[in-house]
Amino acid sequence: MKYAFFPGCSLESTARDFQMSTLAVAQALGIELQEIPDWSCCGSSPAHSTDALLAASLPARNLAAARRLEKDVVVCCAACYSRLAAANKALADDENLRIEVSKVIGEMYGGTVRVRHFLQVLREDLGIAEIRKLVTRSLGGLRVACYYGCLLTRPRELSIVSDPEDPQLMEELLAAAGATPVEWPFKTECCGASFSITRTDTVKRLSGEILKMAKESGADCVVVACPLCQNNLDLRQADIAAAIGKEIGLPVFYFTQLLGRALGLSDEALGIGKLMTSPEKVLAR
Amino acid sequence: MSKATLHSIDSAFLLEMDPDGRLNLASCLQCGRCSSGCTMRLETDILPHQLNRMVALGLTEQMLSSKAIWACVSCHTCVSRCPMKVDTPTLIDRLRQKAKAAPKEMDRVRIFNEAFLASVRRFGRVWEFGLMAAYKTRARDFFSDLGKLPAMLRKGKLSLLPPPKGARKAVATIFNRTIGKRRAAK
Ligand code: SF4
Ligand code: SF4
User: Fold this and answer.
1) Centroid of ligand 1 to alpha carbon of B13 (angstroms)
2) What is the ipTM of this complex?
């Protein structure tokens, strides 16, 4: 199984552990991820808030480069997935946009490459049953609150899950790895996303609600597939706990980190030490 | 909010915001589902269903100077629950693109967006460490989160070095051909 891999800026910096664990898991599962040569930023929210043509052209350049690799594009960052998939669909649907973008990026690209999130590849191409067979170290009933946030579930046309109000994709995957997913109502609430830097109080309020609910639902930890969510829930957790005057103590893993553990990979290879909220206690059980 | 009278209704703005009808702005039923689930409902000045009525009435200036268009976090909850598939987040994007300034308490969002794009324009990718420095200088927000810096550097979550050069030229060309010199000055 071979794919064109788009890491995105976060996976090279604040989400380096997501990148490490993704590459380690892919290798363990026999999935080949070929990095798109000289990939560039997807533009994220600032681009679509500023100019529609810029917001389509930045992803289009990367997708046109991926087309030359003749493979599906795989993305891990939920924000990059959302921008690449949105631009891809807009380019397929809108001839005028296609022409305008071709003048900007210097080649015609018609939205023909398939853009997929790594979770989709794991379920659809490899299959949950196959993954279960490869588990060598069960997660031992670890209670996980799978948290999807916005960008993987909405809008509907770009959603990687069949039910955007109650997704089950990460639950199925982690159950196969031996975890016990908890049912909880805030799986697809918004954490405040890109306001992390600019409107910190908003992010603390929204992320705080999510962490409190995960805790009340009996989770030992939270599992995410998005660098923005991970940052808001993990990096800001100490501040949130101080503000509400209660201990939270919920490690926030990338799904690839827990899956990697179940596949017998080392914590070092999975970047477990990069988490801010220490996972030691929950992993020791 | 000023009153709209029948003769002052201006549909030109609706057509400008949704020229080919893809956003379904003209189909809004005013049912309010969008607003009841809006992530920012507690912090905004104009709720999504109100924006959708205002755009139909042509209340352009009120929308462009609102807090709402900058408070929106693009979570897409509104459109995914809307019975008529009214694409409020894209309407808000178009309003933000058109707005020349943001209200004072929201200006940080605009400043961050500019600093982010300046980083991409220069390096082809975001250089987060440089972005944080540029943002903090421009927003005059020097001290928040400084305590997190050592741990982030230690854990390799921020790099003191900018990203590799590979994509810089191609990305600079994309910026020159789209937003050009606009917004680059600040
Ligand atoms: S949910 Fe849709 S139809 Fe209902 S008020 Fe909002 S935009 Fe209008
Ligand atoms: S996309 Fe914006 S307007 Fe719509 S629900 Fe989210 S925050 Fe509210």
Assistant:
1) 19
2) 0.94
